[in-house]
Amino acid sequence: MELARSVTALLAALSQTWKTDSDQLRYLRHHALPDADLHAELLVANDQQIGDPEIHFDLHPDHLLKQLRALKAIDYETRERLRQSVEKWRRSRNLRASEMERLQSGLLSNPEPEAFPRLLNLLNAAGGGLAEPPADVMAGVRPYLPLLNLLSTQSRDPRWLPVFRRARRVAIALGEPLPGGYHPGELSALDEPRPRWVYQTGRGLAIRRQPERGLLMVGANPYAETTGKIIKRVVPTDPAGTFIRDRDWRYELRSQSIPAWADRMWQDKTGLIHAAHPEQALFVLEPATLNQPNARWRLLKNPWPWATDVGVDQHGLWAEFTIKKARQRMRWIAPGSFLMGAGRGEPELDG
């Protein structure tokens, strides 16, 4: 099997696995793709679609649905070998890992809630009226949250709605992204109070019930309704951020300075922040929301015809180009100079 097809097949197979380690990745290559070499395995392990390759070779949630669809497009013989290899490995895994993999692999087919008793038991304990769910319950639900977030965008089965409601409570307490994608009109069924808006006034914070220019929405319960005061407000010595805490919520307000990759930044009439790269790549800063806890830069204008995709992540500005099926990501580096190579005092320099 040619290299590109081997990489495609292995990436698609990872949509069926959870907490994949190097042993499982190698097992898949040896048993499902006997003609694939180590090069394919290394390319998969270092692919940008892998969430955290230093720990596990799991697909990032943003790419999981894509690879689930890619698996369906693989030829039947290869897909069957991959399925059999995953099933053999799955038999050796613990109960939670098996449930996670079944939930993940069935996202596109809308799995039934009753098929995951461990998940339902954990969510019932976390959202069934307990004022303070035990730490082990909260920790047990955490791994399911990214998959529930994806499932909530796929599922139209009303039986999942109570599960999503309980998952939201756990996500809020853990500071994780909230499951979204509810049916039209179903959001009101969650009975959440209307959001409040907070902005800075000198060294203090003020609350408004209606949005105004330049305000930041911080959630439904940023202060005590009975007293009208922010609960446990903590202003750190670091001027870059302020924290607001209450029983169910934790908010972090950060100042936004001009990014290292931009030469200018401005605010439009609606209060949104924009930034421009010297070569006229334009971005807008999308504010944080309940389903997106951190603000993020969204591309408005791509000035580079060769770039198939441009974006900003925690490491800075990047651009990708594609040749046939090969994709390469490049990072923007600030202009300057640096020393490269061995120094004059390097041992055996002339050897």
Termini, distance in Å? 42 Å
Structure annotation, total helices: 10
Number of domains: 4
The overall pLDDT, averaged over residues, is 75
Largest sheet data: 4 strands, antiparallel
Shape: globular
Spatial order of the strands in the main sheet? 8-9-10-11
Low-pLDDT runs of 5+ residues are: 182-194, 214-239
Q: How much strand? A: 15-25%
The SS-based structural class is alpha+beta
Q: Radius of gyration, Cα only, in angstroms?
A: 24 Å
Q: What fraction, in percent, of the residue positions are helical?
A: 25-40%
The total strand number stands at: 14
Describe, in short, the structure shown.
The chain is α+β, with helices and mostly antiparallel strands and 351 residues long.
Give a verbal description of the structure.
With 351 residues, this protein is an alpha+beta fold. The protein folds into 4 domains: 3-109; 113-190, no CATH class; 196-248, no CATH class; 264-331, no CATH class. Helices cover 32% and strands 20% of the residues. It contains 10 helices and 14 strands. It has helices at residues 3-13, 22-32, 38-45, 61-73, 76-90, 95-105, 117-127, 135-141, 145-154, 161-174, and strands spanning 50-52, 56-59, 196-201, 204-208, 216-219, 241-245, 250-254, 264-267, 273-276, 282-286, 296-301, 309-313, 316-323, 326-331. It has a 4-stranded antiparallel β-sheet, with no helix packed on it. Strand 12 and strand 13 form a beta hairpin. Helix 9 packs antiparallel against helix 10. The two termini are 42 Å apart. 23% of the residues are buried. The model is unreliable at 182-194 and 214-239 (pLDDT under 50).
